[in-house]
Design goal:
- This protein is of the alpha/beta class.
- The chain has 13 helices and 18 strands.
- The chain has helices spanning about 70-80, 100-115, 135-140, 155-170, 180-185, 195-200, 205-220, 235-245, 255-260, 280-295, 315, 330-335, 345-360, and strands spanning about 1-10, 15-25, 25-30, 40-45, 50, 55-60, 85-90, 115-120, 145, 175, 190, 200-205, 225-230, 250-255, 300, 375-385, 400-410, 415-420.
- The strands form four sheets. Strands 1, 2, 3, 4, 5, 16, 17 and 18 form an eight-stranded mixed beta sheet that branches. A four-stranded parallel beta sheet has the order 6-7-8-9.
- Strand 13, helix 8 and strand 14 form a beta-alpha-beta unit.
Length: about 425
């Protein structure tokens, strides 16, 4: 038996002074005060914060197929050090998980190496091509958290309607990468002031919101559980806000970099290149408002590691993608909560509760739930140093910036998987 005592606990949307007892991997008691017995292991939180482990519904673990970028072992260690106990792993691996047989290598790698809970996605289309033939959604359904072609938008309207019909019949979730390839082709950063000033090809915001508009229109007549990945611009947010008011079953996520940075912060360095790109300051402000009014349902990192060589080509030639599991909460706590822009309870809801609810994942500080927990020291401040990351990826736009809050322990199924 282990007792967490004497600290603040995030539970049911509120910060409360509670004690939490864990036995055989599960939470067995939650109360204002639990008297310890001599044989118990007691962890005095002493002013620290106990939360349910964070859930990241948008992570690239790169295994199988791209071990030089990341492995499940390195990616889940990075996650544990950032307070995450559950990850939803995108399907841009090799083989692409478009059938149960093609999914099996991913499931085997997770079973072999994962330190935290990993729920894979299955592909929407065969080969994750965003066109052509629908993947075997029904065959993969028991083993996945949802379906996505992340990295590729579904380009064919009729195919997306068919996918929505199939997902709706299966009660499965579609996590959509919304990108019109003909509009985004050749671009490397947002089509804005920085791109024009530096002569760089831009990616217009319309490449995102036009596909979102199409999908939301389809979802009215082909209802399913529909989720928009990595929202980056104000127009997308307004479309989602309108669709929610009309009763469409839609949720969305955004990432820390879109909430704290914009194209005015760009440097000619691969660590500032991601897809979708950093948008305008107006877009950034609209996203923060979306957190407050509930239009944005959750925060996900889109943790996308690449090798140093792949990120060494500046904005024009580097591959797209940045890492974020080890910095997400501390950088958001520093940049939004301590800055007075977002209540701590709201941030925790976006990272703990909302992802579990939408993706139907277990967890939370409740009796009977698995003891998937994180302990935080919110008083500790530090500087982001990528060379100290556990992830094999090092590219982050937050390198050198101040962060607040450090995860001092992560527990999965009652077992300590990280101590910092």
């Amino acid at each position: 038996m282990r007792l967490f005592a004497g600290g603040q606990v995030y539970r049911r949307g509120r910060l409360q002074r509670l004690d939490v007892a864990v036995d055989q991997g599960r939470i067995v008691a939650v109360s204002d005060f639990i008297a310890p017995r001599p044989t118990w292991e007691v962890t005095q939180l002493a002013g620290r914060l106990l939360t349910p482990g964070f859930v990241d519904v948008h992570v690239h673990l790169r295994e199988p197929g791209f071990f030089y970028k990341e492995t499940i072992a390195s990616g889940t260690l990075a996650a544990a050090s950032g307070g995450y106990t559950a990850l939803c792993a995108m399907p841009n691996v090799k083989p692409a998980p478009d059938t149960p047989a093609a999914l099996e290598p991913t499931l085997e790698a997770i079973a072999r190496s994962a330190l935290v809970r990993v729920y894979p996605y299955g592909c929407l289309t065969m080969g994750r091509r965003g066109r052509g033939e629908m993947a075997d959604l029904e065959g993969m359904l028991p083993y996945v958290c949802g379906f996505s072609d992340d990295g590729t938008g579904v380009q064919e309207d009729g195919l997306m309607a068919t996918l929505m019909d199939r997902a709706g019949a299966l009660d499965a979730l579609i996590a959509a990468h919304c990108e019109v390839e003909s509009l985004a082709a050749g671009g490397c950063i947002h089509q804005g002031d920085y791109a024009r000033a530096h002569g760089l090809p831009g990616i217009p915001a319309s490449s995102e919101w036009e596909m979102v508009a199409r999908d939301l229109d389809l979802a009215k007549t082909h209802p399913c559980r529909y989720h928009v990945c990595h929202v980056s611009c104000a127009r997308t947010l307004e479309l989602i806000r309108q669709a929610k008011a009309q009763g469409v079953d839609v949720t969305c996520e955004t990432g820390p970099h879109y909430l704290l940075l914009c194209d005015q912060d760009l440097q000619d360095d691969g660590r500032f290149k991601m897809n979708p790109p950093l948008r305008s300051a107006q877009d950034r402000e609209a996203l923060v408002e979306g957190l407050l009014d509930g239009t944005i349902d959750m925060i996900a990192t889109d943790h996308a590691p690449h090798s140093r060589e792949e990120k060494a080509g500046g904005l024009r030639r580097s591959l797209m993608g940045v890492v974020g599991l080890e910095t997400a909460f501390p950088i958001l706590y520093q940049g939004l909560v301590k800055a007075g822009r977002l209540p701590l309870e709201r941030l925790l809801h976006l990272m703990c509760d909302a992802p579990r609810l939408r993706f139907r994942l277990p967890g939370g500080i409740e009796e009977g739930q698995s003891a998937d927990l994180a302990v935080w020291d919110l008083k500790e401040e530090w500087v982001v140093e990528p060379d100290k990351f556990h992830s094999l990826g090092r590219a982050t736009p937050f390198a050198g910036q101040r962060a607040a809050g450090r995860c001092v322990e992560t527990v999965v199924g009652g077992k300590s998987v990280w101590k910092g």
